[in-house]
């Protein structure tokens, strides 16, 4: 790094650094805007003009969010569907991937062919809806878990990883009398943490952000996730629904707009906190999934 | 007790304990060997078949359900019982006024997304790669893909706040005298495509760039050193070394992008659409959702949906052929 920079290089670096700063600002600012407005007094925010910092700092919007039973129920559903969904998806997909990845599995090529077809062809919205209806999963919590418990794309990522595990590890377990189930659970899964983290993150983000399942398959508002709840509030402009659920005591200063902002912050925060810790995994996961797959 | 020295190699996968069968009949032997192998991998077969059963139920049964596009399906009867109507639903769709506007919106938004949204991450990755400081580069990257993790519902909420008549965009434009009265952007069809495409780029730019950055990182540094000795500048290195170095990645991702282009809109547009911008926001997926699930016209909606799949497959094949011709990279 002791090379002398030419004048052209210096100008290039300057413009490049500056351009990147602009991209970063444009990316982060809309999110920042929501944050400062969520921390500002609702009535005061109505006057507008809050761009950089809260003018009248207030936590009442968040109090209102946490006291609203509707929002909290929806949040609970989201947490439950994400935790259970990720657990089931990772375990099931990894299990199938483990079996598919074994050499000499009878029917292995056929199984993989069946899966590959599903990546390019599908039934689409209507037949899937009719299937879910026939399976009696409308208005059931299971609709978040079972149709999402397997993904052939994720299976390929798992399979690529499993094939690189040294055979000796499994052979040793076999000699000790382990069967395929215990080899999978006690030998293969523990050494596959990087790929498990990748898939868990991908699926966790999907489960957390998915609003559409709640929109089409769920009528019972006690079963809808927070994203579906927000979709109804935001896209269908029924903000009054939000205000109606806020307990009377603090509603003097909060507005439907400010609660909306606070709910958006509360909904997004877990993901924003988790992802920097997991980013080294998903870069690897994306490479395996997109290039080698 | 494990594999005897004389056992056939095929028995290696499992813990077959029975002695080798007599050799009188070759076929019988092969068959029993096959059964033995199957028995030895019975646990693996259960694992695999659970996955296959899942795929049959959740992937293949809906594929069979596609045939309702050619039937008059009614919710009280089963798919098999519904009477065939041939291409009736297609005739209706092509004759309908909706056809032109739905096709225009679907193809318009998808192709604009493809031609603007596809190259931008490549350009971003090329320039990000030129940042010297590792920590600065890492920080920019971390910030740039943050929006990927935020749902379209939240982003839709942000956009609606920004684009409202009292929103920040109007305030800026008013104070710069670009406009003289506030515009309600989401109520005007002419702005809808722009909003959809811009916000999609905003959400996915950094995320899409990851894969290119990874590909760039695998280019040999010697190439750059050689180019430096030959007197190449920064732009020349980008153009003659980096870009050709990631050509294969670009090709594969382009084919995949073309194949999925008609699907990429649904979540986003469902949030951003409203009755006022309908003439610009009614894409095939939205149309299918409304006619099928909300108005209960399952067969008609399915016919339209199948039409979309066929266009998608044709686009995929064209893209595959074109990239194959151009630089010998193809998906199949």
Automatic annotation (TrEMBL), chain A:
Q: How does it sit in the membrane?
A: Multi-pass membrane protein
Xref: CDD domains: TM_PBP2
Q: Which InterPro entries match?
A: MetI-like, MetI-like_sf
Membrane spanning stretches: 12-32, 71-98, 110-129, 141-162, 183-206, 259-278
Where does the UniProt entry say this protein principally localizes? membrane
Specify the ABC transmembrane type-1 domain's residue ranges. 75-278
What is one Pfam family matched by this protein? BPD_transp_1
Locations listed in the record: Cell membrane
The Gene Ontology biological process annotation of the record reads: transmembrane transport
Q: Please verify whether the record's keywords include Zinc.
A: no
The protein's UniProt keywords, in alphabetical order, are: Cell membrane, Membrane, Transmembrane, Transmembrane helix, Transport
Q: Which Gene Ontology cellular component annotation is one that this UniProt entry carries?
A: plasma membrane
Q: Family assignment?
A: Belongs to the binding-protein-dependent transport system permease family.
Q: What is this protein called?
A: ABC transporter permease
Automatic annotation (TrEMBL), chain B:
User: Can the keyword Transmembrane be found in this entry's annotation?
Assistant: yes
Keyword check for Repeat, yes or no. no
Give the ABC transmembrane type-1 domain ranges. Answer: 103-319
Region annotation (Disordered) maps to 1-24
Q: Its GO CC terms? A: plasma membrane
* Bilayer-crossing regions: 46-70, 107-128, 149-169, 209-227, 239-262, 300-319
Coiled-coil segments: none
InterPro entries cross-referenced by the UniProt entry: MetI-like, MetI-like_sf
Family to which this protein belongs: Belongs to the binding-protein-dependent transport system permease family.
Q: What is this protein called?
A: Protein lplB
What organism is this sequence from? Paenibacillus ihbetae
